[in-house]
């Protein structure tokens, strides 16, 4: 069917116009033209100016001039000439039609962009309907939606995307790694060593030391930059996941979900409360629509939208209330939001609290390392100066000083634990990727680790604990309780039509009837259940919607818990229909509908009977809805203006009850087990729902949330309590039913004030305050609105509570993995520093060279982080209490393990260094001309180096289980750990056997190899023995800072006494950082969390 011309002007694409006559000022020349889109396949041909000539004619004139052996070039544009055509003089070229004109559209993006700034230009086009004609859109059916049509619109108006800042190339990460000051100093040392060595010893020998340092530095830089580059790539992939949003559009009369990036100009988009507007557009139809435009205009108050005065919808803004349909008029870079986003790049340099603590720890360790390095260098230089012959000072002596300085700098490199930030980055990236596999998308990195400390989870019911697959299973209609889903034969036509109208009109869902196949129902799960019930009863959704024009709408929200619609029937009568929570809507009813169409008064007995029916439905874990209506009087009809509805709402008094339905939403499989695991892990799970309290209690009992001693409370009772009463009650509250968004926010706030780490789930716009207030906000990926997702820290992609428990496991594993790495690295650091320090003072030389220390640094930093930071969480993590955020990074158990291993390694290596010749029987004193050392000196140095490395290899296995004797549990399942172990051992063997003078090593025989491995393997039985040594519960630091540990029982107040206490107080797993002042009776003990307002009561 050809599209009809709009009453407004349709512009001829290439007609010459005066610049001052753009937009609504264009008069006759625009009004006299009517360009109809072609019906042929492909882009329709567009009219061009009178100066244009038919390109096909020009081509045929020149065809015979083409070389028959060459294929003629294709023109770049239908209006372009062939290469053989003569060129025109400048200023006489033909105008090329723009893409939108070639596609058959009769309005340009520039004209559309002027609508908001100049609303009169919209009227000049005939309003929204005229623009729809220009864009070839049927507002009721949407665009054609065929692949050809989609491509045509994309080519004409562009895609709904914006340029994303290109990620840094690999060389940029190499350059960043080169900015490390200690590595730059080492590079300088390498250069000086190369120059001095090759000058004094010749090129063939003198390059070894400098070349070895250079190679080791390059290796460290490449490993670090490769790791950073890979992590950046992974974070970029996760960022791409965050931007994936699906929206409802109408195409070819069918409502469907498409990606926000697949949106095209002309699409009809369905917008609901909580949605983010995906593109610029014009409102076709809206009901009680309020839009938050603060992100674009800075206006904090929500703006009301309607089809007449304020139809302009801006991309990036959010729907705060109501629902409606919008026609897309601009996408991607044609929108203001797209232009803004093109200038913004997402910042992945977010630093989590754990990273901040680790950076502080690394700084402290680094300072200690610098101190040791300075002492070692001073001692070595002093001993050198005491023995050197200054009269015969030569290049070799200068090279010795350079070597000493290189050793000192290398000690700093080893001491500075750059592996700590790398480890936390690795474990966060690894955990985020694994959380995606477990259907959880992390928006804020800090939420990963905070989940490990969670002590309470406040969960929604619908869709999280239940499957969100709703079905009407029982109903009470017109005075009779029935299980069957069919219309009673005794119902008169008026009753049947009233039921159908109540189901179909009072809904923001939709039903599509395809030519072949069953009806397709879309909308929220509740709407789908009700509409499906109506279809089974025989309702014809499309016919009822078409025949009953809507006069006004009140949308559903979680505060009112009901929604209403006012419409006129084909016989001219006007009705208002209400639907919502059964007991709430029933309170507004004074009559019930009888099968013969009459209204029967609801006496107290009947009202009690209906409440009993609602209670029985709820006790069977059914969600209950009540349908009611009444006819409006002429006076009420006269008040149905937009202003009147906005001020007073739709009439809701003296309603006639039509039906009460029970909707079954079964509990999700695996939820009871997941709840039990949370409870075993010391996490209190609470259900917070807007449902009936009986329904909530039934589902909570089925899920295992409602315990025998637990309390179920309604929001209206909770909100009238005093703050102290809420504190006293909350530890026992398992269920809060009929809660408003304010109740949920208050609940979260009180729990935080009590010292809890609270995770909250939410899906609606009104959940945003609670999600933002909580320690961790968990938005639902399926049922959640864009507003809820924007306020959250983690998005649960499958809306499943069991996925939340997996997130808790990963959160705990992050902290535990970091502690494993800290234990491993601190041991290596301590031994390397003390070994070089003691030997430098005692013998004037360091047993480990710069190259060897750099290899050790690589083992303990990058490779150690890879091995330990990617350990998968184990089930025993969920058998421990939550980890408080104030827990020391190095616990007493870790100190015990570190001290035990360090004492053994240091003692063993010092014995080898001072008594190795006699113990091992090393007697070969053949000199090495290249290094100036004897063979036995080089062999002992190699043995010390080899034994030290194997101690770290075996201790790395110990670090996997800091508090378990069996360190081999699950070892073979971690393939990356095994790869790192084999890689380390392989490279170590190559260095010892083949590096030679380059790494100051010599090949060892099998006995010495076996000795080194045995000395390293002693770490295993030693670790098991050390773990039987008891340690106190209080951190070691409290014994050195007793003022930081004031017991709660010491806070004693006298009669009328006012004191200010400022001290940390611990109670179980809860940490109260400070106390406010208060008065109390004599001898009373009291505490008050920091965030509780101080009172004088």
Automatic annotation (TrEMBL):
Residues 126-193 form the Cation-transporting P-type ATPase N-terminal domain. Its EC number is 7.2.2.10. Residues 1-101 are annotated as: Disordered. GO terms for molecular function: ATP binding; ATP hydrolysis activity; calmodulin binding; metal ion binding; P-type calcium transporter activity. Residues 247-343 form the P-type ATPase A domain. It comes from the Eukaryota. Residues 54-82 have a biased composition (Basic and acidic residues). Residues 846-1029 form the Cation-transporting P-type ATPase C-terminal domain. Belongs to the cation transport ATPase (P-type) (TC 3.A.3) family. Type IIB subfamily. Catalyzes the hydrolysis of ATP coupled with the transport of calcium. This is Calcium-transporting ATPase. It comes from Ceratodon purpureus.
């Amino acid at each position: 069917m050809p599209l009809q011309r709009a009453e407004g002007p349709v512009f001829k694409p290439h007609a010459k116009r005066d610049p001052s006559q753009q937009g609504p000022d264009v008069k006759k020349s625009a009004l006299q033209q009517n360009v109809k889109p072609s019906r042929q396949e492909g882009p329709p041909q567009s009219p061009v100016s009178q100066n244009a000539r038919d390109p096909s004619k020009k081509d045929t004139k020149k065809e015979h001039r083409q070389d028959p052996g060459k294929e003629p070039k294709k023109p770049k544009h239908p209006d372009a000439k062939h290469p053989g055509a003569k060129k025109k003089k400048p200023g006489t070229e033909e105008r090329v039609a723009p893409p939108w004109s070639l596609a058959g559209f009769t309005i340009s993006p520039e004209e559309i962009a002027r609508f908001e700034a100049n609303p009169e230009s919209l009227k000049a086009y005939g309003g929204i309907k005229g623009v729809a004609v220009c864009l070839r859109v049927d507002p009721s059916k949407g665009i054609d939606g065929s692949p050809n049509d989609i491509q045509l619109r994309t080519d004409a108006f562009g895609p709904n995307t914006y340029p994303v800042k290109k990620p840094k190339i690999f060389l940029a990460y190499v350059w960043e790694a080169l900015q490390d000051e200690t590595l730059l100093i080492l590079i300088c040392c390498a250069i000086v060593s190369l120059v001095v060595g090759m000058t004094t010893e010749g090129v063939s020998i003198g390059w070894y030391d400098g070349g070895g340092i250079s190679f080791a530095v390059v290796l460290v830089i490449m490993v670090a930059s490769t790791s950073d580059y890979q992590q950046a790539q992974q974070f970029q992939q996760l960022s791409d996941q965050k931007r994936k949003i699906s929206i409802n559009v109408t195409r070819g009369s069918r409502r469907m979900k498409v990606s926000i990036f697949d949106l095209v100009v002309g699409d009809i988009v369905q917008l609901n409360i909580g949605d983010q507007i995906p593109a610029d557009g014009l409102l076709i139809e809206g009901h009680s629509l309020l839009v938050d435009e603060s992100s674009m205009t800075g206006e904090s108050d929500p703006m009301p939208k309607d089809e007449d005065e304020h139809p302009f919808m801006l991309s990036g803004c959010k729907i705060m209330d109501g629902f409606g349909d919008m026609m897309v008029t601009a996408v991607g870079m044609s929108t203001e939001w797209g232009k803004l986003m093109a200038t913004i790049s997402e910042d992945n340099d977010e630093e989590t609290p754990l990273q901040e603590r680790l950076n502080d720890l690394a700084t402290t360790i680094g300072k200690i390392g610098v101190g040791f390095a300075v002492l070692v260098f001073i001692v070595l230089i002093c001993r050198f100066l005491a023995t050197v012959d200054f009269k015969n000072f030569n290049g070799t002596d200068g090279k010795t000083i350079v070597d000493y300085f290189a050793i000192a700098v290398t000690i700093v490199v080893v001491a500075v634990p750059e592996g700590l930030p790398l480890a936390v980055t690795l474990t966060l990236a690894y955990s985020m990727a694994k959380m995606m596999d477990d259907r959880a998308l992390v928006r804020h990195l800090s939420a990963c680790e905070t989940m490990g400390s969670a002590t309470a989870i406040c969960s929604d019911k619908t869709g999280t604990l239940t499957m969100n697959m709703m079905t009407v299973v029982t109903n009470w209609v017109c005075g009779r309780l029935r299980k069957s889903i069919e219309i009673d034969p005794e119902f008169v036509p008026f009753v049947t039509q009233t039921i159908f109208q109540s189901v179909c009109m009072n809904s923001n869902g939709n039903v599509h009837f395809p030519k072949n196949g069953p009806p397709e129902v879309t909308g929220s799960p509740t709407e789908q259940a009700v509409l499906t019930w109506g279809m089974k009863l025989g309702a014809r959704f499309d016919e009822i919607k078409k025949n009953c024009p809507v006069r006004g709408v009140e949308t559903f929200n979680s505060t009112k818990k009901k929604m209403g619609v006012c419409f006129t029937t084909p016989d001219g009568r006007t009705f208002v229909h209400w639907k919502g929570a059964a007991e709430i809507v029933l309170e507004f009813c004074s009559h019930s509908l009888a099968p013969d169409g009459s209204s029967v008064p609801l006496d107290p007995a009947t009202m009690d009977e209906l409440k009993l029916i609602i209670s029985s439905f709820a006790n069977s874990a059914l969600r209950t809805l009540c349908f009611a209506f009444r006819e409006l009087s002429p006076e009420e009809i006269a008040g149905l203006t937009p202003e009147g509805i906005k001020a007073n709402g739709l009439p809701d008094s003296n309603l006639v009850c039509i039906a009460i339905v029970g909707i079954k939403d079964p509990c999700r499989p695996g939820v009871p087990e997941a709840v039990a695991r949370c409870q075993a892990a010391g996490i209190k799970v609470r259900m917070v729902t807007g449902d009936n309290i009986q329904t909530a209690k039934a589902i909570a009992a089925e899920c295992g949330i409602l315990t025998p001693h637990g309390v179920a409370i309604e929001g209206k009772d909770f909100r009238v309590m005093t703050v102290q009463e809420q504190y006293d009650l909350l530890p026992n509250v398992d269920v809060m039913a009929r809660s408003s968004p304010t109740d949920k926010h208050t609940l979260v706030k009180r729990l935080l004030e009590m010292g809890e780490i609270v995770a909250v789930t939410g899906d609606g716009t009104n959940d945003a305050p609670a999600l933002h207030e909580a320690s961790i906000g968990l938005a639902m990926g399926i049922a959640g609105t864009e507003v809820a997702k924007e306020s959250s820290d983690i998005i649960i992609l499958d809306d499943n509570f069991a996925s939340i428990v997996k997130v808790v496991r990963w959160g705990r594993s992050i902290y535990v993995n970091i502690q494993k790495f800290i234990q491993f690295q601190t041991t290596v650091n301590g031994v390397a520093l003390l070994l070089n320090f003691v030997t430098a003072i005692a013998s004037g030389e360091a047993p480990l060279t710069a190259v060897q220390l750099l290899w050790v640094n690589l083992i303990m930093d990058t490779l150690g982080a890879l091995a330990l930071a990617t350990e998968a969480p184990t089930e025993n993590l969920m058998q421990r209490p939550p980890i408080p955020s104030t827990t020391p990074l190095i616990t007493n158990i870790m100190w015990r393990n570190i001290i035990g291993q360090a004492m053994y390694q240091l003692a063993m290596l010092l014995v080898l260094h001072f008594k190795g010749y006699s113990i091992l029987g090393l007697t070969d004193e053949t000199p090495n001309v290249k290094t100036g050392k004897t063979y036995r000196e080089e062999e002992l140095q190699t043995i010390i180096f080899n034994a030290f490395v194997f101690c770290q290899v075996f201790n790395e296995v110990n670090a996997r289980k800091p508090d378990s004797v069996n360190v081999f549990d699950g070892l073979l399942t971690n393939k990356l750990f095994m790869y790192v172990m084999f890689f380390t051992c392989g490279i170590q063997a190559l260095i010892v056997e083949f590096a030679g003078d380059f790494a100051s090593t010599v090949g060892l025989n099998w006995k010495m190899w076996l000795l080194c491995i045995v000395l390293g393997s002693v770490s295993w039985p030693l670790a098991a023995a050390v773990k039987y040594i008891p340690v106190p519960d209080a951190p070691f630091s409290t014994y050195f800072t007793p003022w930081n540990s004031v017991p709660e029982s010491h806070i004693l107040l006298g009669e009328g006494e006012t004191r200010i206490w400022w001290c940390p107080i611990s109670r179980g797993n809860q940490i109260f950082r400070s106390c406010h002042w208060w008065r109390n009776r004599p001898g009373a003990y009291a505490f008050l969390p920091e965030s509780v307002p101080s009172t004088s009561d």
